[in-house]
Here is the input.
Amino acid sequence: MDDEKLEMTTAQLLDEVKRAIRVVLIGGQSYKIGSRQVTRADLLQLRELKKELEQEIASQGPDGLMDNTFVAFFEGR
Here is the structure.
């Protein structure tokens, strides 16, 4: 396979991780067919990777300086 076809953007990778999480949640962590057992990716690791990818995407904003910052205005003081 061509290496360029294997490269994914962070957003594409995040979509794949979300899909993998859904598969584990719906189909279970492992399953057995006859004498063979298949274990899917670890759910905890997938969730950690999802969080990292979301943070990476958030940091790629315009400047990342005040991302996830909220301002509150309190009247009557």
About this structure: The helical segments are 3-6, 10-27, 43-59. The CA atoms of residues 21 and 43 lie 6 Å apart. Residues 8-59 form one domain.
